[in-house]
Amino acid sequence: MLLQVRASPTFLPSTSSSTSSSAQAPAPSPFLGKSGQRRGGPVSLAAAASPAPHRGVARRSVMAAAGAAPAAKLEDADALIDSVETFIFDCDGVIWKGDKLIDGVPETLDLLRSKGKRLVFVTNNSTKSRKQYGKKFETLGLSVDEEEIFASSFAAAAYLQSIDFPKDKKVYVIGEEGILKELELAGFQHLGGPTDGDKKIELKPGFYMEHDKDVGAVVVGFDRYFNYYKVQYGTLCIRENPGCLFIATNRDAVTHLTDAQEWAGGGSMVGAVLGSTKQEPLVVGKPSTFMMDYLAKKFGITTSQICMVGDRLDTDILFGQNGGCKTLLVLSGFINSSVLTLIYALLI
């Protein structure tokens, strides 16, 4: 049985919640329940485990927002699998944490492939290109085709293509190599990225910072080389270049750089530029529906035949619900024989 759950009281999370679901300690029993309406119809919830003690405040805040739900039981996991044509998996926190593969992932993927399911891997982490992610899957011992991988770095380039972004315009990147590589593959000119990581601004009387007037878009993603120079350069482009776009790969509050703890995510970089420009970004990663619409069109499937598997309510699950998909919330860190053994199941 792929899903193993038992009945117990629980709660129904709100779609507006920004609570992370990546609890770090096991609980004695899963929780089940159903209630509420979402896009696409009724939702039922099967919770795999209660949050760790240090997650208590976050859990109570979600419960307060949504209210307790009556107990119910998810009886037939096979029926859920049979109803889905495509499973979309988040990567960080679901397939791996940092550079460590989560136990049970290979067996789960093999099982789903043996049942003829299409597997797609979607990540908000923009530091790598699709090709680079393909190598990471290979390093972890997973056989995944590059065409099955959709990173937010690719989404940024795909979005610019979808709006016929002028090829004579440039893209300023606050982010890492993954965005640069995807922009190059799409034929877009770019500047910035890691090479601006060492640049400093010498603030002295009368100093005036120049910027490229041909920049027509600023793309902001997770950036370990983030600095004040990049904030100012991106701000000048957005404020002073007519029609300059402000694009965010994602607004994740935290990310999994290692398997030891959560780290400040791409949302912190986006927030800095938002703060200086007072302009809301166009988000191409989860929970925006851009990638969902792109995938549905590419594979010719309806979203009702898709199940989104993730470890975060505010990105992965909301991404699936916004797109009208079934969703599974994995409580990473509790996986035994299968990455789907202990889960929340939101059946739309």
Automatic annotation (TrEMBL):
GO terms for molecular function: phosphoglycolate phosphatase activity. GO terms for biological process: photorespiration. It is an enzyme of class 3 (hydrolase). It is found in: Plastid, Chloroplast. Keywords: Acetylation, Chloroplast, Hydrolase, Phosphoprotein, Photorespiration, Plastid, Transit peptide. Its EC number is 3.1.3.18. Residues 1-52 are annotated as: Disordered. GO terms for cellular component: chloroplast. Belongs to the HAD-like hydrolase superfamily. CbbY/CbbZ/Gph/YieH family. This is phosphoglycolate phosphatase. It comes from Setaria italica (Foxtail millet). The lineage of its organism: Eukaryota, Viridiplantae, Streptophyta, Embryophyta, Tracheophyta. The gene is LOC101783973.
